[in-house]
Amino acid sequence: MPSNVHQATCSAPVNIAVIKYWGKKDTTLILPTNDSLSVTLDQDHLRSVTTARADASFSNGDRLWLNGEEETIKDGGRLHRCINEMKKLRQAKESEDASLAKLSEWPVHVCSENNFPTAAGLASSASGFAALIASLAALYELQPQVSSSQLSRIARQGSGSACRSLFGGYVAWQGGNSPTGQDSLAVQVAPQSHWPELQALICVVSDAKKGTPSTAGMQQTVATSPLLQHRINEVVPNRMKSISDAIQNKDFDTFADITMADSNNFHACCLDTSPPIFYMNDVSRAIVQLVEELNKASEQEGNGKLAAYTYDAGPNAVLYAPKQNIAKILATIRHYFPNADFDDTFGLLGKGANASHRGPQEALGLPSDLPASFNKNVILVHEAGAIRRLIHTQVGDGPRLLERGAGKESLLGENGEPLRLQRAKRA
Amino acid sequence: MPSNVHQATCSAPVNIAVIKYWGKKDTTLILPTNDSLSVTLDQDHLRSVTTARADASFSNGDRLWLNGEEETIKDGGRLHRCINEMKKLRQAKESEDASLAKLSEWPVHVCSENNFPTAAGLASSASGFAALIASLAALYELQPQVSSSQLSRIARQGSGSACRSLFGGYVAWQGGNSPTGQDSLAVQVAPQSHWPELQALICVVSDAKKGTPSTAGMQQTVATSPLLQHRINEVVPNRMKSISDAIQNKDFDTFADITMADSNNFHACCLDTSPPIFYMNDVSRAIVQLVEELNKASEQEGNGKLAAYTYDAGPNAVLYAPKQNIAKILATIRHYFPNADFDDTFGLLGKGANASHRGPQEALGLPSDLPASFNKNVILVHEAGAIRRLIHTQVGDGPRLLERGAGKESLLGENGEPLRLQRAKRA
């Protein structure tokens, strides 16, 4: 592969909101009805990786592959807008420095892959668009003149919550007031290093019993829920301030209170939609009840809360907890929800990090160090597989530049098409 | 039995709210945070029956038996308040007419029974307190000088929603503004005869998978839900007006829209509580999705909505529908939820009224007259017994005086104790 190839490969993280984004006031620019705030998760465990290459010889314009499937870049569509905005930033740079290659005039090929399967039940659009923007920013050498917040404004137009994946740590998406979206962007509330002890346990919940999935979404809530306006005007502004303070103070109890209340408030607005939108199922609710009981019992001993739950637009729970509580929470979850596959990324079960524990497992007893007043009958032991998979991760950093040029990290082959397609053809 | 016994036996109906009552501003007087509105159901199918007797010779003070179990009448408790308020009304009457027996000074024995088992999943406190008040009002010969609205004010202090069971048809509980509760009472919005075609199908949902039941209730929502205030101040007042108009106009589409939206709004406030309160389960939600799909498909054919769902503080659905839609809805429910016991009170299945259809039944096909665009896959066919029981009933009348004196309707024996206890002793 020629060494003068114009290419960059970046990875970007998943983020899980603790103050939820639900509702757009502009569906084209993706301007949200309220601010939101998220925790960036560790790319060592969950990430999107994207290679972007600019080449004057590409003859079919801009092209993009996602997990090996080519996506159409529709005129005026989200991909088109993002790539064009990035080209404009490059163009501005080129117009200031005539010695630069005119990359902005060349077509780009983009290849993006997620390291987590759809089966993980995690939305990949946030990490995906963040990796797209990060790799184009690296390709075009836009930083540090262009800030990550400026980049987040572009990622936002791909997928709203993608803007928050442009930063590590604790990240706010300021909804902004401008009709052009100039001030609708992400800012870092605190870096990962400020409060690195926060970990996450993702509970991937089986949703096998569902019929036809609902097609209703956030704009249906905006149009029909009388409660959403109150959420937007009163509830979220207060919580943004309080949870930012809790993060500054590493005050897990307050962080947990607000996180759980806001998840419930968001799902309440979904339920208040006509027709109602249901994301949580009976298993989701059982996890809520279990966490509430764990917290109540811990508080009765004069200790703090053990964990906080939050649910996005699906049945999966994400549990946030300080590192020292995770083993206890994990064991409790595995008792009530047998047979979940477990990605033991931190070696909690004592068999080395990154072990996977799959398939049938013995009925597990409850951990011996639960608070004394914990009510064992708060929920029943569920049928095997009610939680399909457990993923243990932690707060993480922002997008990473993996490679400049076309080396071993490249997802694109010499011909500018995905390597995995070429490998598949050879096999 | 002596014929000069001072006794009355009354029955009172169940009511199911379409604008929900949730939250008290005074927990002793039971003053609600918002108005509510209900449909009274037919006593031919679901009722509480109460015999009240006053006798100077009763030597252990006031006593009350509910379904054969004696209840303690605690000083200052709800039963005590209700009986005392009724005695005061009698006393006022006696003070105006010296020829009247001084019943207000005599102890009362009260025996109350519900004709529906706990298994029906219906709250019995509304019909029970309404029957208590109605039977004491008949015993004391208070009506018509004391109006049903005045009686409802007393029933309200027993169980809030009981005040609405003092009327038949369509009934509003006006929350009122007075701190004494003088203006917190029920009024009839329209009699049963105004819109007699409205029928109900009660779907008793299995809740076998629940762990420890939640003890949190409406006052937890008042204390912690930021959305409830908006419901109280904005949502309910608008809906009370609109649904009253819809009832006046026999406009089922609007009635259904508001009924479903208010059920969802109420459960949204429960979910917005800390810790969250969940009443609906996966089966409840599947019924919602089925009804929403039936309505959408019917509207796509240019017809009106077929049914409206509403959920009280539990997983059971009550479906309201015009009489002509019930057979279609019933057959659809029985297709997706096999093996429900069915109380065929109207002889819909062609085997005579009041037949019961129990135990395993063949998998039932969908009815042939569903709207063409109905999506059969909106939900899956559930496991047998997911809905345990179906009860078909209709809008009904208010409390009935079954008997004055001690005849064949009496629940009390000659000795002033429940007949069913005497029968049980003899057996």
UniProtKB/TrEMBL annotation, chains A, B:
Residues 200-401 form the Mvd1 C-terminal domain. Coiled coil: none annotated. It catalyses: (R)-5-diphosphomevalonate + ATP = isopentenyl diphosphate + ADP + phosphate + CO2. It is an enzyme of class 4 (lyase). It holds the Pfam family MVD-like_N. SUPFAM superfamilies: GHMP Kinase, C-terminal domain, Ribosomal protein S5 domain 2-like. Pathway: Isoprenoid biosynthesis; isopentenyl diphosphate biosynthesis via mevalonate pathway; isopentenyl diphosphate from (R)-mevalonate: step 3/3. One of its GO terms (molecular function) is diphosphomevalonate decarboxylase activity. One of its GO terms (biological process) is sterol biosynthetic process. GO terms for cellular component: cytosol. Residues 406-427 are annotated as: Disordered. Its EC number is 4.1.1.33. Residues 12-186 form the Diphosphomevalonate decarboxylase-like N-terminal domain. Keywords: ATP-binding, Lipid biosynthesis, Lipid metabolism, Lyase, Nucleotide-binding, Steroid biosynthesis, Steroid metabolism, Sterol biosynthesis, Sterol metabolism. Belongs to the diphosphomevalonate decarboxylase family. This is Diphosphomevalonate decarboxylase.
